[in-house]
# Entry
Amino acid sequence: MDRREHLKLLLAGGVGAGLFLASGCSEEDRRQSEEILRASDLSYGRADYEMEHDKRLLSETFFTEAELEMVKVLADIIIPADDESGSATDVGVHDFIEFMMKDSPPFQLVTRGGLMWLNNQCNTRFGKPFLDCSESERLELIDLIAYPDRAAPDMLYGVRFFNRMRDLVATGFFTSRMGVDYLGYQGNRPGFWDGVPAEVLRNHGLEYDQKTLDESIKEEDRYRIAEWDDNMNPI
# Structure
């Protein structure tokens, strides 16, 4: 089972925390985010103070450019593109994580500290920071912290950091449109019951009378709006 399938199972088990508006990195991104925030489909049912809260957070920046680049790399290591869908950064997971840093301040210190830890480990092992490392060097380090049961005791801090990052990436990806489509989630859909199957009725020597059949809703008519004549008879 690949990494994406593992994350899908994690999300099904309750890792996901919900979809939040994400903060862009450029002025154009911020402008578009504010337009989305004002749109009726997202503002419906939201109090003014909630709208103002999100607007304020969207105007702020937490990650430095280098930190955000590291988050992007980590996100695509956790959920890379494959034949079925794009990668984490293709749906803006890094922007989601940027927003979460501001919406939930307890994330800030441990996340920034974890990024610093990655750089320190890379400098010690490879003589250069994380972003300057090759893909194989990055994966060599990530493999040491991605599997808690196999991690060495001195990797514990990195394990905790990567666990949090994996949860954030999975939440951001699998609550995006692309992630929902990948999961095949259909949402709540009304079913249709068209009565007891004819074979079962025959086994019991029963059948629906014609009046019942005429008055019962047929599947092809389920979305038709009922109309009545002046005598309250169905048309």
Summary: Residues 3-183 form one domain.
